[in-house]
Amino acid sequence: MFFLFLTHFLLIALPVLADIDRSQFMVGSIFTSDKDESEIAFRTAVDRANILERNVELVPIVVYANTDDSFIMEKMVCNLISQGVIAIFGPSTGSSSDIIASICDTLDIPHIVYDWIPNESIPDREHSTMTLNVHPDNLLLSQGLAEIVQSFAWRSFTVVYETDKELQQLQDILQVGEPSSNPTTVKQLGPDDDHRPFLKEIKLSTDNCLILHCAPDNLLKILQQANELKMLGEYQEPEEVENIWSIMNTTWLSIGSLMGQGCDILPKAASTRLVTGMWWFFALMMLNSYTANLAAFLTNSRQANSINSAEDLAAQSKIKYGAMAGGSTMGFFRDSNFSTYQKMWTAMESASPSVFTKTNDEGVERVQKGKNLYAFLMESTTLEYNVERKCDLVQIGGWLDYKSYGIAMPFNSPYRKQISAAVLKLGELGQLAELKRKWWKEMHGGGNCEKSDEDGGDTPELGLENVGGVFLVLGLGLFAAMVLGCTEFLWNVKSVAIEEKISLKEAFKSEALFAARIWITTKPVHTSSGSGSSTSSSSSSSRSKHSFKSQGLSMKSLKSSGYQDVEASVHSKLKKIGSMFSLKSQKTVTPPPEIGWKLDKSTQIDALPTSDGDLELIPEVETRLPHRHHHHHHHRHHHHHHQPDQEHDGNPSPPE
C-alpha cells in the first residue's frame, strides 16, 4: 500500500511532456541513515514510476542527515533545491520537518511525508497517513477559509465537524467575530449514516447558516438527507433586476416620514440612506416646530376668550369672584335690580369660603395667588392703577356702572361754584386726562405692562430666521448625498466594465441611460461574451424580480466549496492565499478558479481554468494504480510545454 501511495504522488509531481526524448527530473529525499527501510520503498517507487512513465525519467538524489539538527537540515534542503529537484521526500521523523515544509512552501516545491513504520502491524498501519505538502500550508488555508466565512457577515452560524482533526482545522473560523454578536454552535456528526435526527435538531434551531466540514464521501449523503427534510433552498440566477425606488415609492417614503408613520421599504446604499436621514431630520424639526406653535396659539386663544364680560362670569361656577366687604362695589351688587348682577350677588353671598376681602390690596393679592380661579370686582380707577403696575393682572370687560367723583364741601360754601367751574374747565382743557396719564401710566412704575401686552398678546408666527438652520442642514445633507451617489455610480461603472469586459465609456453610457430613464424600473442582467455565466451589476438598492429563494437552510462545505454567487465576494481572499487546490504555474494567468464541487462514484473532480481559458479536470487521488498519464509541469529550471489541444490517452491532466 505504501508503494502505491508513493508512486501515485510521484506521478502527480511529473509534468506532461510533448517531446519524444526522455527528460530527466530529479527528486530529492532525506533519510536518517543508509539502513532506513523507507529508502528502499522510495527507490522502488521511483523505479515503478519510471516504468509507467516512458517519456519522463525520475532521478533520485538521496542524502543522509541527522533530522534533529535543524541547521544541518536547512543546509541540506537548500543544497537539494540548488540542484533543481522538483520534489522532496522525507524525513518522516525528527523535529525539523516544519523547517523543510516552510522552505518548500515558500518556493512552491512539493514536500512528501509518510509516517510508515516497517514493523507495525496491519491494523495499526491503517492509521498511517501520507501528506503532500503543497502551497499554501494547512495553517494558511485555515486562515483563508476563516476570512471567507467572515466576508459572508453571518450573524450566527452552526459548525458541524466529523472528527477531532477537522475541529482543529476550524479553530480560526470559531474565532470569527465577537461571541455576543456572532453566536456559534458547534456540533459533531454521529457515527451512523442516518443523520436525519441530527439535521432535524439543526432545523428546529432556526439557524439558516451551516458550515459542514466532513469527508467528501459523507458530504453527498448529508446533503441528500437534508434535501429530504426540505432544508436546502433553491436558487435561480436572476434574468433581470428591478429598481425598487420608483417615483411612487419615493413619494410614499416622503409622505410617510412627514406623518411619522415610516415606510415598508428602506434604502440600503450609503447615499440614499444619507438623503433619507436628512429628510427625516428636516421633517422632525418642522413638524415639532409647527406643533409647538399651534399649541401655544390654541392655549392663548382659549385663555383670552374664556371670560369677556360679567355675563360670562355669572354663567360659570369654576372661577370664584368677590369684592371688598362694605365697599361701594359690594353695595352696587346687593342693591342692583339687574338679573345678572342679582345672580352674581347670590353666588358671592353663598360662596364658601367667603369671597369678600377687607381691603382692595388683599383682593389683588388673592387674585395673584388664585391661579386664574378667582376674580376681584373693584372700582375702575383703582383697578386701572393696579393693572398698570402689576402685569400679571388683566381687566376683563367694560364698566359695570358709571359714577363721577366729587369733592365734599360744607353747605353754602362760598368756594363751591368756583371749584366746580375750575374742575369743569380743567376737564375741557384736557388737563385732568393729562394728570391721570402722568400719575397712572408714568409715575411710580406706571406703564410697564403696555409693552408686555404688545409683545405677548398674540403668538408670533414662525419665520425663516427661526427654521433657517433646518433648511441649511437639509441642503448640506443633500449635497453630500449627491457627491456620495456620484462616487458609488462611478465605482459601479468600473465594476460593470470589469465584469462585462467592456470599456469604461460603454459601461458609463449604459448605466447613465438606465439612471436617466426614471420611468424604467427593470434592467436585464448583462451577459459577458467571455464567460458562460451571467452576473448582476445592480447596486445595493436593487432586488431581483424573477429570482426566488425559499426559506431553507444555506449549507456551505468548507472542503468542497460553495455556490457560484459567492465567487465575486471571495475572489480577493483567494488571490491573497494563492491557489488552494493546485501548485502555482508560471504560465497560468487566468483568475482563480470558480469554487464548486462535483462528486463521482469513485473520483471527486474539481474544475480549474487552464492558461487557454478551458477547464482542466483534476481527479482525486485513488488507492489503486492510475492509468498511464502524461503530465505537464512548469519549473524554473526545466520548461517543456505541450499544445493545449493535444490528447493524452483520454485521461484528465493532473494538477499543475
TrEMBL record:
Signal sequence extent: 1-18
InterPro entries given in the database record: Iono_Glu_rcpt_met (IPR001508), Ionotropic_Glu_rcpt (IPR015683), Iontro_rcpt_C (IPR001320), Peripla_BP_I (IPR028082)
Keyword tRNA-binding set for record: no
Gene Ontology, cellular component aspect: postsynaptic membrane
Membrane topology: Multi-pass membrane protein
Keyword Nucleotide-binding: no
Full protein name: Glutamate receptor ionotropic, kainate 1 isoform X6
Gene from which this protein is expressed: LOC117137783
